[in-house]
Design a protein that fits this description.
six-stranded mixed β-sheet; Actin-related protein 5; Nucleotidyltransferase, domain 5; ATPase_NBD; Actin; elongated; Actin, Chain A, domain 4; alpha/beta; coiled coil; 28 helices; 48% helix
């Protein structure tokens, strides 16, 4: 049989933290007055620079931290990448944005100061002498634009300002000619995603569609998925972690439903499962090794303790056996008396013994006989004491009035020893009889096998099937007790209520014994004798699983014995046919195991099965390391799929494919023939934004568009060359156009028209005045 090579070790990726660049934020060494400054103020990052450059001078996260230096008695304002340089700053990190809107204008002013300083802006008149081109969200609220006007015109005294939409600027940067014609723009931002139709070089804002899902929501969704998957993960998973996870390990599925069906199959899981390792320090304790003498003393001590416990347990079992034999003898004699009585007298005698009927009496006697045999076979078959002979209890038969006080005490002791000795002798005799019966049965089985092996195997297989069936049914019943709404649980509650009612007139064995032994009291209370006999506690068997567990253990032992015989004599019965093999946990067939632990066996369960001590498991370095690992599999496609199916994340909105379909067919002319609006838009479906960088995004979008477009429609889907920074490059390119020159709002126009006034252009919002 060829050997199976073990699977190759999985590659482990670190759970990344944000690390600040080694070099500080650069300062511009080529500042020029009157050159427009492009400010792409995103809720995720700021991109600033002069438009005479091909790329932004500074790119930094939109974060700010205020740190109080108690020694210097100063409050420091830390901005951008510097907030990650010192752990002391991280506790006070904040953003000026709440969703897509600015809510803290003081922070924005600090960030603009920071930006202009790094652009090396200088002035001899105390004013900002550069025009400003700035991004704003589609359908920007008037309050946002008003505050931004006030900040730029009244705080910085900017000469003129214009606003535009980032995704349209990105389209402009990726257009060869200087004039944008027709396009369908899909912009995925940090807080939302927009679908904007562009006709004749101008964005149609009245038909723009928004999906409230972006990079921030994707990170939060990934965090919730991992929190549900690993509710007791020892390390904290921060938004920074999930942001890196979705950027580096997620991808768009070409067919989500089909891929999801087989994602956890072992071949696919081997290829798709990503292991992320959280930081963990493993300390191996340096325990002082014990000497051989000390180990030997400890072993001897444990043996002595074990012997004492065994003797105590044996003594208790002997005492219980004596009590059970007395009760069995009493009821056996009573049954003999019934032979000389008529039915009426038997019924009256049964009622006087607190039994409901003769059937209940016989049932109780049979169960008592069964319990007595079980108790005899447990332990009492051992050898008696050396003094357990006729000379060991000479005082037993002497009346008490002939003995003094010390002799009476010794007589009680000898009586107990004699009872124990008699119990052992009876147990030995019962055991010899049982052994004789077993030997006779084995001889008959051997003769049967020699005579007809096939028939013997068939009968034993049937017996095994019956036992296994009973065990399964009993397991279902025991599981039903765990469900409080099940019939079994409801019946148990009724039994508990009956047990709690002192006036219920119970005829249980414990009640009968309490009435019969009324003189045996506890705490001097003649009305409360419960517990005087250890068997009293068996009343709770009706409200617990004790009897079911005992029956399950007996059947398990019988199944093991049958399987052992079949393995020995039946050539068609193999280890794979045993009950334990059918119940063995196969992690390769467990969807939950593969989802949480990936395509490798759980090391903790494996070592537990090998019998490793719990203390060793807790200190095992490999187990500690694996407990700090995250297996990313289904989440890799589930997070990106929300853009196409928002209902996955509980968003009551249409996905970008449905939004585009509705826009093309219903909001526009729906004409896919030459000359139609829809026809011209589908020839240039342009996607931009950070989420577009997911693998397979373009292919999935093209596949979905093809599914609803007419056959032969001239579909073309393209992506921005740099989906993150092309918005700024479009602003830089647009700054030199004539349209930009005519789109500025000057300080004089602001003073005259008010903060609600803007000049419309093809890449910005519309004026609502």
């Amino acid at each position: 049989m060829p050997s199976i090579d073990p699977p190759a070790p999985q590659r482990i990726y670190p759970l990344k933290e944000t690390i600040s660049p080694e070099n500080p934020e650069p300062f511009n060494d080529n500042y020029q007055e009157n050159v427009p400054i492009a400010l792409d103020l995103g809720s995720s990052s700021f991109k600033v620079g002069l438009t005479n450059n091909t790329s932004p001078n500074n790119v930094f996260p939109a974060l700010l931290s205020r740190y109080r230096d108690r020694k210097a008695q100063k409050t420091l304002t830390i901005i951008g990448n510097d907030v990650h340089r010192d752990p002391a700053f991280k506790s006070s990190i904040k953003s000026p944005f709440d969703g897509p809107l600015i809510t803290n204008w003081d922070y924005i002013e600090d960030m603009l100061d920071y930006s202009f300083e790094h652009l090396s802006v200088t002035s001899d008149n105390g004013k900002l002498n550069n025009p400003v081109i700035m991004t704003e969200p589609p359908a920007c609220p008037l309050s946002q634009r008003k505050n931004m006007y006030e900040l730029l015109f009244e705080t910085y005294s900017a000469p003129k300002v214009t606003f535009g939409i980032d995704s349209l600027f990105s389209l402009y940067a990726n257009t060869d000619n200087s004039k944008v014609t027709n396009s369908l723009v899909i912009g995925t931002g940090h807080e939302s995603t927009h679908v904007i139709p562009v006709l004749d070089g101008k964005g149609i804002l009245s038909q723009t569609k928004r999906l409230d899902w972006g990079g921030s929501q994707s990170s939060q969704f990934a965090s919730k998925l991992l929190a549900m998957k690993y509710p007791y993960f020892p390390s904290k998973i921060t938004p920074v972690h999930t942001s890196h996870i979705i950027k580096e390990h997620c991808y768009v599925s070409q067919d989500y439903q089909e891929e999801l069906k087989t994602y956890l199959d072992m071949p696919n899981l081997e290829r798709n499962d990503i292991v992320l390792q959280a930081p963990v320090e493993i300390h191996v304790p340096n325990e002082k090794k014990k000497s051989e003498e000390e180990l030997a003393r400890q072993a001897e001590k444990r043996r002595e303790q074990g012997k004492r416990l065994q003797l105590q347990a044996q003594q208790k079992r002997l005492e219980k056996l004596v009590q059970k034999e007395k009760e069995w003898e009493y009821y056996s004699n009573l049954k003999l008396e019934f032979e000389s009585l008529n039915k009426t007298q038997i019924h009256q005698r049964v009622l006087s013994e607190d039994f409901e009927s003769i059937e209940a009496f016989n049932k109780y006697l049979a169960s008592l006989d069964k319990a007595l045999k079980r108790a005899r076979n447990e332990d009492v078959g051992g050898e008696g004491n050396e003094e357990g002979n006729e000379q060991s209890w000479p005082l037993v038969d002497i009346p008490d009035d002939q003995l003094d006080e010390d002799q009476i005490k010794e007589k009680r002791k000898q009586r107990l020893l004699k009872a124990n000795f008699d119990a052992r002798e009876r147990a030995k005799e019962a055991k010899r009889e049982e052994e004789a019966l077993v030997a006779k049965f084995e001889k008959e089985q051997e003769e049967w096998r020699a005579r007809d092996l096939e028939d013997w195997c068939a009968v034993k297989r049937m017996e095994l099937e019956d036992l296994v069936s009973k065990m399964k049914e009993r397991s279902k019943l025991m599981d039903a007790f765990k469900d409080r709404k099940s019939v079994a649980a409801q019946q148990r509650m009724k039994n508990i209520a009956t047990l709690a009612n002192d006036e219920s007139g119970s005829t249980s064995a414990a009640s009968r014994k309490r009435r019969r032994n009324a003189n045996s009291t506890i705490d001097n209370d003649p009305n409360d004798t419960f517990g005087a006999n250890d068997d009293d506690w068996s009343v709770y068997r009706d409200i617990t699983n004790v009897s079911l567990e005992e029956e399950q253990e007996e059947d398990t032992a019988a199944v093991l014995k049958l399987e052992e015989q079949l393995l020995k004599y039946d050539p068609k019965f193999n280890h794979e046919d045993t009950f334990s093999a059918s119940q063995k946990f196969d992690w390769k067939n467990s969807t939950l195991h593969k989802f949480v632990h990936g395509p490798r066996e759980n090391l903790t369960l494996k070592l537990q099965a090998e019998g490793v001590e719990p203390e060793e498991l807790e200190s095992n370095p490999e187990i500690i390391k694996r407990n700090h690992q995250i297996h990313l599999n289904v989440e890799r496609i589930r997070v990106p799929e929300v853009l196409f199916q928002p209902n996955i994340a509980g968003i009551d909105q249409a996905g970008i494919t449905s939004l585009s379909e509705d826009l093309l067919y219903r909001r526009l002319d729906g004409n896919f023939n030459a000359g139609g609006q829809a026809h011209s838009l589908i020839q240039d479906v342009f996607v931009t934004g950070g989420l577009v960088q997911w693998p397979n995004f373009i292919e999935r979008l093209q596949k979905d568009f093809t599914s609803f477009l007419p056959v032969g429609a001239p579909l073309k889907v393209r992506s921005a060359k740099d989906p993150v920074s092309d918005a700024w490059r479009g602003m830089s390119k647009w700054a030199s156009s004539e349209e930009c020159t005519n789109s500025y709002v000057t300080r004089a126009e602001y003073d005259e028209m008010g903060p609600e006034y803007i000049k419309e252009h093809g890449l910005g919002n519309v004026c609502l005045m």
